[in-house]
Structures are given as structure tokens and as C-alpha cells.
Design a protein that fits this description.
single chain; alpha+beta; 6-stranded antiparallel β-sheet; 5 helices; 9 strands; globular
């Protein structure tokens, strides 16, 4: 743990632990590069591939695959362990390095080697250059019609987008509505 980024990571983890328990569970610090990446664009880019990562026990996992994204179409799943991207092993990389592998806007295909359970296989993620909505919705009909809306970022005109999704679900026919803000990094205050 002599790398400067490792020391920073340990210090940040300690501070975040303190903040989440003693101050506010919704307040945390993040690496500068990550903050710039998240806050620089309030609109989703056509280069967004539809997945986020997390590091657990020194391994990189897919934390979330966004519905109808390029990652979803490639067959990547939440909790897949990423072994390599474009032939580059990710075991010694931090999360910003992994994200950097996907930043080449001219590259269209990204071969992922992933582990799922006891199986290891290759999934080819093809960039489609389309912009995904910040709002995903569906009606869950398990005998008790519940509307489900996932809001992945507070972007421009997001309130109007949520209103349209609620109207599509025919709210008078619903028994409830869930607004999912998990993994939402924030965005525009207005």
C-alpha cells in the first residue's frame, strides 16, 4: 500500500465511514477525478455504455447495468466480476482507471472477460452512440400493480420526464408508486 492513490483511498474510506455513522449517511467524499466525471455532464452522453463499477476485496465488479443500455444488450449483469477489458487485466486498477478504459470515444467494441459464478466468458459490448434516458419506468404487476420509476441523475427537464413516465403508467390504475433514487449521484439542483 505504498502507492499514493492507495493511501488516499484508505484515508477517504475512513473519513466516509465516520461521516456515514456520525454525521450524515448521505454525505461522503469522493476522488477528484470521479467527482469531475460525475458532475461535469448533467446530461447523459452518447458515449455512456450503461454500467457502473465497484471494487470489493481488490476485485472489480459491475455494480449496475442500466436497462436497455449497450451493457445490457451485451449481456453484462449486475455483480459480474470483471477480469479484463480490451485485453487489459483490471485486477491492479482503481475504479477511475477502469472507467478510463471505456473513454475512447472512437472505439466501438469493448471485449469484457467476466466471471459469473463458476463460469468465465467473453461479452462484447458494442457502443451504439445513443443517449439513454435518465428515467426508466415499468409497471410491476404481481397482483398489486405498482409503478416503478428509476431516476439515475437529476438532469435538465427531469421533472417533465418523470411526469410523462407517470402518465404512461396510467396512475389511476396503480396501487402504489416507487421512486428509485439508488446510485443517483445528484445533478442539477433546480
Amino acid at each position: 500500500l505504498t502507492k499514493p492513490e492507495s493511501k488516499k483511498h484508505i484515508l477517504a474510506s475512513g473519513i466516509n465511514g465516520y461521516l456515514s455513522i456520525m454525521v450524515d449517511p448521505h454525505t461522503y467524499i469522493s476522488p477528484t477525478d470521479y467527482f469531475r466525471q460525475v458532475s461535469s455532464n448533467n446530461e447523459r452522453s452518447k458515449y455512456f455504455l450503461g454500467l457502473s463499477f465497484e471494487k470489493k476485496m481488490e476485485k472489480i465488479f459491475i455494480r449496475k447495468v442500466f436497462k436497455n443500455s449497450d451493457a445490457d444488450l451485451a449481456g453484462l449483469k449486475n455483480n459480474d466480476e470483471v477480469v479484463s477489458i480490451n485485453g487489459k487485466k483490471v485486477e491492479d486498477l482503481n475504479l477511475s482507471d477502469v472507467s478510463a478504459l471505456l473513454k475512447d470515444k472512437n472505439q466501438q467494441t469493448f471485449p469484457f472477460v467476466v466471471k459469473r459464478g463458476d463460469s468465465t466468458f467473453v461479452k462484447k459490448l458494442n457502443r451504439s452512440y445513443r443517449v439513454l434516458s435518465q428515467v426508466q419506468s415499468e409497471v410491476i404487476n404481481n397482483g398489486n400493480k405498482i409503478g416503478y420509476i428509476q431516476l439515475s441523475k437529476f438532469a435538465y427537464n427531469i421533472c417533465e420526464n418523470v411526469r410523462q413516465e407517470i402518465e404512461k403508467m396510467k396512475p389511476s390504475t396503480l396501487n402504489g408508486l416507487v421512486l428509485d433514487l439508488r446510485d443517483n449521484p445528484g445533478g442539477l439542483l433546480t
